[in-house]
Amino acid sequence: MNNLILLIGNDINNISSGQSWKDLLQDIITFCHTGDCVELDDKKPFPLLYEEVFLTAIKREKLRERELKAFIAIKAAEIKANGIHAAIRALKPAHILTTNYEFTLEGRTPYENTSLINEKFYSIFRKYTMDDIHYWHIHGDCLNPMSINLGFEHYGGQLQLMRNYVVSGTFYSSKEVPKESLLRRIHAKQVYYHSWIDFFFTHDIHIFGLSLDFVETDLWWLLTYRARQKFHHKNVPVPNTLYYYIPEELVPACKFKLDLLTANDVKVISLPGKDKLAYYTSIIQRIGKRKSS
């Protein structure tokens, strides 16, 4: 059985020609007519920058968030696939987790949602299955614009539901969703992989193309809670390994982040990364060799 699991971020899209992330930010500001008072600055955490743009816009233009997120969904859907997306599919992983909103990893837009429940806003169970690969869009997707996780409020709501799922149990009306917490279900050996969160406690995960900036509060909480369970509370077995790939040229500048990842039981792997295409090709080859060994 193929148990290969990947967590992939937006940087693989930067190989493709076309719109960059900074371009998208500028487009959002232009769409909201806030260019005269909202300044782009790397010191602003993006979830709070999003709130600044949106709140400024609704005070001026009475803009609805649904309209803004629909615009962002259209822009994100314009991202073009490249050879790395196809090479990732060729690995035939069982599961691909992604923070990306578009469907370049799938290679085409999926016809139906195969999640346990159909979430409108948050993304605990958000899954599409195509060609025997399960794709989990953990920060929302373009087909459901209101699910796109951008602002501080959305991150907070997502984290609240994640913590319920792992620690205290869920309160969904659907009878299909297990009510017991993931920790209790791991003890009882009743983990059925209804959510992408399950894999963080049970399976090896290869993480690449993801900056894991500190604004990703949901993922940093999950890493921290997993590590605490393994080393401090020791309430559940945590047998898996998390691998984080980074271009070796970025290691000095990212030292503090890498120190934190190491403390949280993430194995950091650095590879030559001056050529982005060659860098991701080398990661895929490395994972492919591990998979076949």
Question: Could you please describe the fold and organization of this structure?
Answer:
- The chain is an alpha/beta fold.
- It has two domains: 5-16 and 81-292, no CATH class; 19-78.
- Helices cover 39% and strands 11% of the residues.
- A seven-stranded mixed beta sheet has the order 3-4-2-1-5-6-7, sandwiched between helices.
- Helix 8 links the parallel strand 6 and strand 7.
- The model has no long low-confidence stretch (mean pLDDT 93).
Descriptors:
7-stranded mixed β-sheet, 11% strand, globular
Task: Specify the structural class.
Answer: alpha/beta
DSSP E strands, number: 7
Gyration radius, rounded: 19 Å
Averaging pLDDT over every residue, what do you get? Answer: 93
Strand order of the largest sheet: 3-4-2-1-5-6-7
Put simply, the count of helices is 9
Largest sheet entry: 7 strands, mixed
Measured distance between first and last alpha carbons: 14 Å
Low-confidence sequence ranges: none
Overall body shape: globular
What letter string, H or E per element, gives the SSE order?
EHHHHEEEHHEHEHEH
Share of β-strand residues: 5-15%
In total, the number of domains comes to 2
Helix percentage range? 25-40%
Q: How is this fold's topology laid out?
A:
Elements: E1 5-8, H1 21-31, H2 46-61, H3 65-77, H4 83-90, E2 95-98, E3 127-130, E4 133-137, H5 152-168, H6 182-187, E5 205-208, H7 217-233, E6 242-247, H8 255-263, E7 266-271, H9 276-292
Parallel strand pairs: 1-2, 1-5, 2-4, 5-6, 6-7
Antiparallel strand pairs: 3-4
